[in-house]
Amino acid sequence: xxxxxxxxxxxxxxPLILVVAxxxxxxxxxxxxxxxxxxxxxxxxxxxxxxGYGLDFLEEGVLDREVEQNQFxxxxxxxxxRLFLLGLVIAVGSGLAPLxxxxxxxxxxxxIVEHVPIYHEIELASAVVFDFGIYCVVVGGLLTVLSVVGxx
Amino acid sequence: xxxxxxxxxxAAVALPFLATGxxxxxxxxxxxxxxxxxxxxxxxxxVLLLSLRGSEGAVGLEWIPSLGVGLRFYVDGWALLxxxxxxxxxxxxxxxxxxxxxxxxxxxxxxxxxxxxMGSILGVALAADLVAVFLFWELTSVCSFVxxxxxxxxxxxxxxxxxxxxxxxxxxxxxLVGFVLLASVTGSALGSATFDLxxxxxxxxxxxxALRDAGLFVPALVLVAVGAATKSAQVPLHFWLPxxxxxxxxxSAFLHAATMVKVGVYxxxxxxxxxxxPEWTLLFATLGLLTMAVCAILxxxxxxxxxxxxxxxxxxxxxxxxxxxxxEVYGAEAGAFHLLNHALFKAALFLVAGIxxxxxGTRRIAELGGLREDLPVTALVAAVASLSMAGxxxxxxxxxxxxxxxxxxxxxxxxxxLWWLYPAIAVFASAFTFLYSIRFLMLFFGDRPxxxxxxxxxxxxxxxxxxxxxxxxxxxxxxxxxxxxxxxQPAVDATALEAHETHVGVPxxxxxxxxxxxVALGGGAAAYPFYDRLHRGVLTGxxxxxxxxxxxxxxxxxxxLERSSGRLMSRVHNGILRTYATWMLGAVSVFVLAGYAAAxxxxxxxxxxxxxxxxxxxxxxxxxxxxxxxxxxxxAGVLTISLxxxxxxxxxxxxxxxxxALTQLVVETLALLIFLLILEExxxxxxxxxxxxxxxxxxxSLAVGVTVFVTVVLSTRETPEAExxxxxxxxxxxVPEGGGTNVVNVILVDFRGFDTLGEIAVVAITALSxxxxxxxxxxxxxx
Lengths: 152, 783
Known about the structure:
The structure holds 2 protein chains of 2 kinds.
Chain A: H1 4-27, H2 35-53, H3 57-62, H4 72-100, E1 110-116, E2 120-125, H5 127-151
Chain B: H1 6-30, H2 34-51, E1 57-64, E2 69-75, H3 77-100, H4 107-126, H5 130-148, H6 155-184, H7 186-190, H8 197-202, H9 204-213, H10 217-231, H11 240-243, H12 249-258, H13 260-275, H14 278-300, H15 305-325, H16 329-360, H17 376-390, H18 396-415, H19 421-441, H20 460-478, H21 480-495, H22 512-527, H23 531-544, H24 550-572, H25 577-598, H26 612-630, H27 634-654, H28 658-679, H29 691-715, H30 725-738, H31 743-751, H32 753-775
Antiparallel strand pairs in B: 1-2
């Protein structure tokens, strides 16, 4: 699959996908999107890189690290693992936070900040934190599966 | 009668379990002295129960209030008698174990299981809720399994442990069904559905009438009887008890003489006021007397001292069951008093057998004899205990057996005819009881076989517990009425149908019961010279007729089960992914469809409103689905599957569900990429398609499709128009409550956040299991 067409397309498309993924995540509360969709789309970008450039490209080409043979899963997978664990911690933590204020587990709230330049008003919803937890778990979890299975 | 202190009752049951948890820790510091810790716990329970004496009543905690299930305990004379026996003998067994189990490996497990076992027994004794009874009942079986299988590297031990587990836990399941039947009529009998045994025992008439009206009286009775018979080793389910002798001797003394096997008897006594009826008498008197006779004969055929004692235990359990079977008041007296007497002399005898095995190095009856010179104190203990077992006056076993004779005689006298068989069988069994009791005693008398090596004196820790038990048994024999007044009468009151003052004594005139005793003892004494011939005769008979033995049936059953499960495994469970998928999908479809059929649901009439775009999209999807099946290569197959997925996404868009469509699109894209990533690894050629496989897969696909279709149709029957409250609530509240205009997302992260949390936990678990399965599969041992 590592043809020139594939690689060129990947180069062009991956940044776009990542931007769209982030925008889907951010807009999720008011427009179609959200943590889950954004997460899956992010994983899609990584999957394209894996197909186009091989599994070691992220380590060697992007992070400029030496990759030993058969050591692939050691470092990257640990990073993914940490990511989804972090996501779980964020999600559970955002659920626990309301307990401090005497509310029930996972209670969400929001405020609207007005008079912001350019945007005029911004809505700050606590649910975004929880959604970010979902995003991290989906990205970390799916990438773990993808890279472990891909390494086989 | 004052109500009991709830704290004391709960403490008595909970203490052994707490101690079990501490044992592994304590064992590091105390080592073998953990035995004395166990003895202290047992003593504490004993004292707690003793302090409850004289009080009566129920205490309890809520457990599952909606089902009428609670953690209820009921204290009365019967519960206290059994509880005091279990904890009192527990103290002695722990002390004895300290010496007997010296230098054995795995002692932490041993003492832990023994303590948990004692807690379960106290739980059964005190529990007054059928669910709690069942729970503790099965816990005794589990602890017994661990203790019988204590020598894990011996095949005998494993075989016996498995057999005991199979029989007693299996019986427990019968009991559970019986309990459910009992509880099912409480709604009409007592006004509210409950598992509360105290409430049932308070209204036995209403319960019996309700059971009979529902036609459940005999089924419930039989199910409870099966449960009790397996636990208390009644014919034909007695065979596990002699095998259980693979356990260390203190375990045999504690579990298989004094406590666990009495759980069935105890519970029969407990239910006696509730279910007493002609059917009850017929069932339990017959079962008990049959067991008493058959196991007494088998005891005579035994070649090993522990085997002899095991069959004798089953025989005496039969005596108690028969006692509780008779409706006469003497029956309850026989059962309750013999429970105490038997525990005293049989535990002593097992401990004596342990001393003999420990000091003489053999348990074979033929190799033992004349031990009184080497073991004088043990011989004295054995004499008191065996004569009590034989039912010789004035030893304690005599009085309770006399009560059974009276009950049997009175029943036969009142009913006449075939009922005269009852006293006849009782006398016959007692003659055999006398025979094997004397045979056991003769181990200590007569000539000492030359082959018997040097026999050591036992240490005090081994000797004191049986000596104490024999002493108590002797005192009970000399002052039976004092004992009855102190501890047995309250137990009789709880199990008897009418109030009656129990009074026993050595008969001074020739009453029918006294005549029966004379016949039994005389017959036994007359037959004793022919003991060896009887012994050989029974053995030859058993060897010639293997199918007559329950054990033979057990072995055949287990073999058959093993063979058929092996065959089943290779079909269902053969390690090939598609086999698992086939069975799983097939089973789910069958069960779901059968469920719909059983509930006789009907497909609601549907107004099918389809627009042209939807028809086109679905047509493309169908074409793609057909193309998957005939795709010539992997790439074509994957792409056509994706086509199907994208069509579904477009369908979502047409049905105005943008979030679903977006998710479907993204997931579909990712799935396609993953397929492409792994495509190179898949072999080029599938192999030729087998026609039968194709038919099977086609049928399976059709079944799954039908199931999903019917489920969707049925579950979306309630359209939002008909039931608008929830949908309207979410759409109305999304902005003011969640602050978002995307209702789907607000539901996900706000209203139903807990569901989402569960779902992302699933994603994380999937990732973890992939890591465990793929990257760690080469670690550790492989078979």
